[in-house]
Amino acid sequence: MQPVNIVGAGLAGSEAAWQVARAGVPVILHEMRPTVATFAHKTGDCAEMVCSNSFRSDDDVMNAVGQLHWEMRAAGGLIMAMADRHRLPAGGALAVDRDAFSAAVTETLRAEPLVRIVAGEITELPTDGNWIVATGPLTSDALAGAIRRVTGTEALAFFDAIAPIVHAETIDMSVAWEQSRYDKGESDAERRAYINCPMTRDEYEAFIDALLAADKTEFREGETAGYFDGCLPIEVMAERGRETLRHGPMKPVGLTNAHKPQEKAYAVVQLRRDNALGTLYNIVGFQTKMKYGAQTQVFRMIPGLQNASFARLGGIHRNSFLNSPTLLDDRMRMRQRPNLRFAGQVTGVEGYVESAAMGLLAGRMAAAQAKGAELAPPPFTTAMGALVNHITGGAEAKTFQPMNVNFGLFPPLDDARGGRRGRKDRYPAYTQRAKDDFSAWLAAQ
């Protein structure tokens, strides 16, 4: 049996490789790291998490991301299995110890007899064979050039920013306190999963002034600041209005200052645990393109972080993705080169979970093809089906932008299953329908 070749061992490529192998088909996983490095990656491990350690909400009743988690678990996904094994307290979210998670994915794939991991860069698009391109938003210049030559179009691009990470021991806990928003979580650890730094109105206004005045990273020639709204740098949010951050990542609602319970904070900066030891915390929603010197000065204005030591400062990089509605069919194959499938963020999905989910689908479809069969995508009443439908035809090609999974991608419910009722009724109806339809799709394989 001819192997399936996969380019890129990020979350999508790793998940695709696992699905192919579990179907009994040999797979060759090509990864250019560490032979060819990127500025954002630190290791050559599979499924390295760069921007954050969070897979977002794990609520599979009221949240579309949680429903996607459910579907990936139901399909025997490697990424979710390793995330569950290395999860950290994070309220209602699924956060992981990123180093342990990546190492576990790598070890599991290397132990799978049908998976062979090959180091080295793929610089051209193969004209034959069964291939999945899962190179992610940091696709190498050489391969990106090859894609442009085949498609005849420029890849779209947006900028993604990396949030800073703080050493926990340098956070002043006489000012900050531990609490998840609205005390969410079933255990004490979950209810205390975040560290919160309060700001008065004067402190907030001074912080916004410093943010706006700080030196920013300059763009290279030919680059434009086409940010994805789900991952805006904080200074870009501040430029949209002085109150924007206070209604976004710095919103104070659902939090009570343990040191001064009678005082309502004007704004709150949250930090989320970043490793199992609890020694590192990332500043939630604080993606930034400020220069390093400016970052330390501005972030130390945050009460509780005045003496903060940073394990990593924020960064900015260019993310490339395909205009998938014009280029890919509903089996995620390039129409001009049907021997090629694309998966992950390069297809125009946004987020770790969404990227891995597209890898899961591409892997199952490629494995079916290797066996002489054809696998249709899940119904678009499911989270995975809604995503793949969006990127391969549901979105408007002229305005196509990266998309997180959300209930707006799901087909409407009829009156009997939600209709015009509120979210408390409608969202469970969406997720129950998705569970039923996804289970039926799996059973038919």
TrEMBL record:
Pfam families in the cross-refs: GIDA
GO cellular component: cytosol
Catalytic activity of the protein: uridine(54) in tRNA + (6R)-5,10-methylene-5,6,7,8-tetrahydrofolate + NADH + H(+) = 5-methyluridine(54) in tRNA + (6S)-5,6,7,8-tetrahydrofolate + NAD(+); uridine(54) in tRNA + (6R)-5,10-methylene-5,6,7,8-tetrahydrofolate + NADPH + H(+) = 5-methyluridine(54) in tRNA + (6S)-5,6,7,8-tetrahydrofolate + NADP(+)
Cofactor: FAD
Occurrences of domain MnmG N-terminal (ranges): 4-373
Localization (cell): Cytoplasm
GO molecular function annotations of the record: flavin adenine dinucleotide binding; tRNA (uracil(54)-C5)-methyltransferase activity, 5,10-methylenetetrahydrofolate-dependent
Top EC class of this enzyme: transferase
Transmembrane segments: none
Signal peptide: none
Positions bound to FAD: G8, A9, G10, L11, A12, G13
Top-level taxon: Bacteria
Keywords carried by this UniProt record: Cytoplasm, FAD, Flavoprotein, Methyltransferase, NAD, NADP, Transferase, tRNA processing
InterPro entries (alphabetical): FAD/NAD-bd_sf (IPR036188), MnmG-rel (IPR002218), MnmG-rel_CS (IPR020595), MnmG_N (IPR040131), TrmFO (IPR004417)
GO aspect biological process, one term: tRNA methylation
EC number(s) given by UniProt: 2.1.1.74
PROSITE patterns noted in UniProt: GIDA_2 (PS01281)
HAMAP family in alphabetical order: TrmFO
Family: Belongs to the MnmG family. TrmFO subfamily.
NCBIfam families on file: gid_trmFO (TIGR00137), PRK05335.1 (NF003739)
Physiological role: Catalyzes the folate-dependent formation of 5-methyl-uridine at position 54 (M-5-U54) in all tRNAs.
Protein name as annotated: Methylenetetrahydrofolate--tRNA-(uracil-5-)-methyltransferase TrmFO
Organism: Paracoccus alcaliphilus
The gene coding this protein: trmFO
